[in-house]
Structures
1.
Amino acid sequence: MKFSMGVEVLDQVANQVQSIIIQKVVSPIDSFVLIEVGSSTVRFTTTDRTCELQVTVPALAEQEGSITVSARTLAQIARALEKSETCILEFDPIKLKLTVISGSSNYELQTLAAEDFPVLANEEFEGSFTIDASNLLKLLNTTKFAISREEQRKYLKGVFLNINKKKEQECLDAVATDGFKMAMTSTSKPTAMEDFKGVIIPEKAVNTLTRYFEPKGNITVHYTEQKIRFVSNGKQFTSLLINGDFPDYHRLIPPESNLILSLEITELLQALKKVMTVSSDPNEVVVITLTNETLKLKVTSMGRGIAETEMPVSYPGDTLVMKFVANHLTGPLEVLGDGIAVFTIRDGTSAIKLRKQGDEDALFVIMPQTV
């Protein structure tokens, strides 16, 4: 096995695939990357036995073959080499070493047999569909902040993809919730999804897709009840799905109310950051006092002090005092970006709804603190 490629490309690929590796591996080969050289491409594969990332890139192949080496070591070497250089990788079947040569640098790496590499991405899938890459990544990026961190309810530790009917039209929903906040957004339903039952994509898979898949072209999705695969632009990512029933998220949406509060997103975020300066805890509680003309924010941090600020508003209801965990508010506001945030409020103890003015796809539900 022998091939050459640009160091910059090797650096990008090696760092992507090594991010899948976990600290505590079952066996040494679980920390290795499988390198497979074809006639004009080379494929790099890593796995943690629950998910698998494959990246295929063009290469100048002199001899086809396959071998495995330490993923982190290869990434460290690629990071240290001059990015403008070309590197040559060659497997010596006598020494059982992979040689990496670039400029004046020369490395010999320990290897393990390619045949021993654990395979997750077989071809047994029950259905598939194709979706615009930017649409899928937007679904995941909009909702992932609301994924639960609790180990007890594993069915909340991911993003739920589900077919739903909205205004008599079928759409694809993405939903995440931890019981205190919920993020939901939708896009038009891709074709060939008639048999799609809904799946819960684990947080690690969501983060890998949003970090390494590009928002251009299409992504082809293959799925079974236990496994899902995403293929696009030379990348293939396969993950086991989370077993369990995701809650009926429609029941978590509060009813409509005529108490509407509209605020500039950037101004509200700035106000929240001001009062959070006295606390380093993102779970600190922000007390909001809302009147017809002002919105006051207050944070009291034990041992550090008190911060208060206010901003002018136009609110049609009676005076309210509400308490929210700080990052339950900042999370959706940062996702929405610029524009006008529209809050639908019932009272000081009920969940509030948050949308961005002009955006009917994304909806956020935030529960206040009641103690």
2.
Amino acid sequence: MIKKIFAVALLCVAMMISGCSESAEDDKPINTAQASPVAKSVPAFKTTTITGETVTNEIFSAKKITIVNIWGTFCPPCIGEMPELGDMARNLPKDAQLIGLVCDTSDGSQQIKKALQITKEAGADFVNVIPDENLLRFMEGVEAVPTTIFINSKGEVVGKAIIGADVDGYKDELKRLLAQ
């Protein structure tokens, strides 16, 4: 348990230092279109959403492409893009979906409550997942949030990761991937 808490704390500190140390006004992408900072495929997992529903890696099989937005409740750019993400999720093509992966919720009900408040106020009613140990290991290469990756129906990471708040960039990459 202590090892898990340490891993989550280390991940959050690294993300705060590198990704969200910039001011809330500076929500431009840090570096778009770079190689993925995560593993090549999503490991098997069974966890819950911030609203308490059970979710597994089978969630990816429902759509051709899943946009996974890795974000934290401590991150102003992440929070700032939530209304746009909510709108995007409501208007996605039928073969795509958007899922949030809330990096700082695995060990605390306070962060879960904060994530619920953020998503509710923003109208971002898409699925937001609390990472289990397998998802925490999957995210080990993520150095900044938001980081957005794209997953195919087989659970494989495809396309380029987008680091920083860039909803237009997410839409462009999704369009490119769906056209393949």
3.
Amino acid sequence: MPHPNYASPRETLEAALLELGRRGVDLLRLSPWYRTEPVPKADQPWYFNVVAEIDTKRPADEVLLALHAIEDIFGRVRTVRNAPRLIDLDLLDFRGEIAPPRPGKATLPHPRMAERAFVLRPLADLAPDWRHPVTGTPIRELLAALPPEQVVHPG
């Protein structure tokens, strides 16, 4: 969503990505940008989405803490699930690790990523040979299985 200190949602995300480097997380590559409807559909503005490939010596749980700290810096307020938000940074996959849900820890891979075009489309651009770590399903099959009403536009 638009942020009070930046001209656009995309500029907000670009500033947040720069913050990663200050926290021991190096940005290697970015997917193309996309604009997407909220999921589930709601009376909210469309979002900007991008997937980043990173490099770090930090473990997944520390990377997740860094992402949450950056969200806090940029004014993220956690209310109810799927509420409008200024910024949302997720850890999708981390070296193919699998980690079940645990309070305050990274769940890997992200539990709902395979159901969301706004995640899979940019991920497929960045990593066309990626496979879901749990199921082994290729990303192109995950994309083909998505409902057609999930709208994703180049952004």
